[in-house]
Design brief:
Layout (H helix, E strand, L loop, with lengths): L1 H4 L2 H15 L7 H29 L7 E3 L1 H15 L4 E5 L7 E3 L1 H18 L5 E9 L4 E8 L6 H4 L17 H11 L3 E6 L5 E8 L8
Parallel strand pairs: 2-4
Antiparallel strand pairs: 1-3, 4-5, 5-7, 6-7
Helix pairs in contact: 2-3, 4-5, 5-7
Length: 216
């Protein structure tokens, strides 16, 4: 990733410099100049994002679990979207008396942000997304659910969702859900997907109240 990223900045800067220096001097081929330099800049930016995502996936940090108010963490995720997406209906349904959960709050927040972001995109930013918790005192496990009434996920794609580099998005890099999956597995949990009728999807994360020994 490092070796790929090194030449990208000078490529991008060179294209931007060509555009600035020649824009006033080239008349007949000005449109071609704009198109070509624009394509170079856009594609380089896409490569940078791809390399960044790959680096983050390859260097997942070790867990740093601590007792966490899960509902406060989830509220911080929901608030972010409520402020930026006024056309979106975003609800929370929290289980009463949920005790502190021993998780890495940064990692769990990253996972939930990814699921909510996918749910918002599935609704086109104007549907309904529900973030819900449930817990079983006897089993010592807590569940986080992210539901939406969006377009749903085709059956043929469900088994591939957590595979690296598989994406249903035109501009997707296919690392978001594999990262979510890895975070959940590192916490000793599981993640599943189900359809909502008549339309929509629900991702369910199940975590122990106390994680196994963190990986190094």
């Amino acid at each position: 990733a490092h070796e790929i990223k090194n030449p990208l900045t000078p490529i991008q800067l060179s294209a931007e410099r060509l555009r600035r220096r020649l824009a006033d001097k080239v008349t007949h081929e000005r449109k071609l100049l704009e198109e070509c330099t624009g394509t170079i800049i856009q594609e380089v930016e896409g490569l940078k994002q791809l390399v960044d995502e790959f680096s983050r996936f390859a260097r997942m940090p070790a867990l740093a679990p601590r007792p966490t108010d899960l509902h406060r963490l989830l509220e911080s995720v929901v608030t972010r979207y409520q402020e930026s997406r006024p056309g979106l209906i975003l609800k929370t349904i929290f289980a009463p008396d949920l005790p502190p959960v021993e998780v890495d709050p940064d990692q769990i927040k990253r996972a939930v942000l990814n699921l909510v972001d996918n749910a918002v995109e599935a609704t086109g930013g104007r549907g309904e997304v529900v973030v819900q918790t449930a817990w079983s005192p006897g089993a010592g496990r807590v569940q986080i659910q992210v539901s939406d009434n969006g377009v749903g996920i085709p059956p043929e794609d469900k088994e591939k969702l957590f595979l690296p580099y598989f994406s249903t998005k035109a501009a997707g890099m296919g690392l978001g859900l594999p990262i979510v999956h890895q975070i959940v597995i590192d916490h000793g949990g599981s993640i599943s997907l189900e359809d909502i009728l008549p339309r929509g999807s629900r991702f369910s994360i199940e975590l122990p109240l106390k994680p196994p020994l963190a990986r190094s």
